[in-house]
Design goal:
The protein is of the alpha/beta class. It has 2 domains: about 110 residues, NAD(P)-binding Rossmann-like Domain (Rossmann fold), CATH 3.40.50.720; about 190 residues, Dihydrodipicolinate Reductase, domain 2 (2-Layer Sandwich), CATH 3.30.360.10. The protein has 10 helices and 15 strands. It has a 9-stranded mixed β-sheet. The structure holds nicotinamide-adenine-dinucleotide (NAD).
Amino acid sequence: MRKLRFGVIGAGGIARRKTIPGMLQAANCELAAVMDVANIEAIAREFGVAKAYDNETQLLADPSVEAVYIASPVCLHASQILAAAERGKHILCEKPLTLTLAEAERAVEACRRHGVFLQEGYMMKFHGAHRAIRRLIDDGRLGRLVYMRAQLSCWYPRIDGAWRQNPAKGGGGSLIDMATHLYDLLEYFAGPIRRVAALTGNLVQDYASEDASTTLLEFASGAQATVDSFFCIPDEASRTRLEIYGSRGGILTEGTIGQSVGGSVEAIFGLGDAAYDAAQNKDVARVFQPIEFDKINPYQAECEYFADCVLSNRAPEINNAKNALHILRVTEAAYRSARERRFVEV
Ligand SMILES: NC(=O)c1ccc[n+]([C@@H]2O[C@H](COP(=O)([O-])OP(=O)(O)OC[C@H]3O[C@@H](n4cnc5c(N)ncnc54)[C@H](O)[C@@H]3O)[C@@H](O)[C@H]2O)c1
């Protein structure tokens, strides 16, 4: 099978922990070169890659690199996308695409001008549980989609020099870094978001990026949702819950949101009119059934999908440039809403 030859820009964080191992599992991907400004020899040794660079210009000049995976701090994405596009490399870039919508528009335009494909790293849509849930929703098992809640929090203390803790380098804190994953995932279930109202704040941690965010979402369908993402809730205290309710039932998950392959899903269907209880007896058994799903590594799956698109000369539909711009539009609307203390249309 023909394999897409990747060069990785920013190989030390999520790339090293998750995406490169996923890429190496993908039948249609090959790791041709890695680049980082730190520890590059150790990274190259770990993955058995012969080509290791400590600057992006060298990696982009390497003719064996057909596509790049960019996983550097967010403030570097815009210039690295432009440089990669100019060298004719297809681009899989981590989320958020850039710091701002304006930067993203320029990056997307450069990819269009140079004829390279662009895909973004909102990989949770590839998770097997989320694919299974989408099928259940599409099959009408929940009836009309009414309300969703998605949670992603962690404990992230002050670390000197950490780019996420400086809005100039990360674009913000828990909202842009984690809540945007959930905006994207909930749109996969419910279609486009119409308007948002967000609360952000610094409740515990002592740095400039927000450590607290709660977002109220309204979808074009009328469905409603809340997203809660904090950098100041201990990981062990947060179950990363996803709850999806419709007029005929509900789906609950634990541990499917995040970087895992697993987690659990349970659901109850077939309710609605038949379940009307005039006596308002709420003391009834609520019998949820476990839902099985394929254990798909979302990092492997996003690489496979991107490689398949490039190798068959077809623009990605999942996590494409249009989606990247849209999620940044939702993100900017959320921050604006938090500043102006009102709903903002997307
Ligand atoms: N999809 C996911 O599950 C997921 C998870 C974590 C992070 N991310 C995203 O991945 C990106 C990186 O986040 P991270 O947590 O890995 O950060 P990190 O700080 O852990 O790693 C970033 C890496 O980039 C390197 N770097 C710094 N300057 C560079 C330069 N000029 N050129 C190339 N590399 C450089 C650093 O040395 C480091 O190895 C961000 O966009 C983040 O939002 C995605």
